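hiii so um. not sure if this is the right channel but i have a protein structure encoded as tokens and i wanna go backwards to a sequence. like what aa goes where. can anyone help
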């Protein structure tokens, strides 16, 4: 069965015990809240884990280095429009380099690094539900449920906490699935190691 936005909404509403919606354009409280929180929930879940369907690589175009960063970095690059989270920067596509994301002269986010030819590994802002895998769709439904619970359940803090816990419990399953696809054990998972370094 194809994953759709409405199927994820109804999955989320099912966690609340709320009634399902038939259309994204409905003017029911359930549809209004799902519409309001949808993009935020989707982006949060994409940022919380490097889902394989959302991983991209791109060679970056150079920008002027913003003032004040000369002592730390040599180069600035424009980020791809669909870049939601930067994971790694490689010099000439091989050696990993330190980086930071800063505000460029035009006010847009840019990437700063010492890589003279930078290859970016990043999570893209994937909007097409047909590209989502089942585990992502299930996890997104849990995140959306936690966000819409406050307005739909009239601040039922116990239910909101339960839904937040359900969401948090989904992420280790995603890590284990990703590690298995790469032929790694959980302890070997470089994503977990990278998170430790960032923390």
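sure thing!! here u go:
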């Amino acid at each position: 069965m194809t994953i759709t936005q409405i199927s994820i909404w109804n999955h989320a509403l099912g966690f609340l015990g709320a009634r399902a919606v038939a259309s994204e354009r409905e003017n029911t409280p359930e549809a209004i809240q799902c519409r309001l929180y949808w993009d935020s929930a989707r982006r949060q879940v994409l940022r919380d884990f490097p889902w394989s369907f959302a991983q991209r690589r791109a060679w970056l175009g150079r920008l002027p280095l913003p003032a004040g960063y000369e002592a730390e970095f040599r180069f600035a690059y424009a980020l791809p429009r669909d870049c939601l989270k930067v994971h790694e920067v490689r010099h000439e596509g091989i050696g990993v380099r330190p980086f930071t994301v800063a505000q460029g002269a035009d006010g847009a986010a840019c990437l700063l690094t010492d890589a003279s030819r930078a290859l970016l590994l990043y999570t893209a802002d994937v909007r097409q539900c047909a590209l989502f895998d089942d585990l992502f769709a299930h996890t997104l439904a849990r995140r959306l449920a936690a966000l819409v619970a406050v307005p739909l359940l009239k601040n039922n803090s116990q239910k909101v906490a339960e839904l937040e816990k359900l969401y948090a419990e989904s992420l280790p399953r995603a890590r284990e699935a990703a590690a298995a696809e790469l032929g790694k054990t959980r302890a070997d998972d470089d994503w977990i190691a990278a998170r430790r370094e960032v923390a």
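oh and Confidence is low (pLDDT under 50) at residues 185-199.
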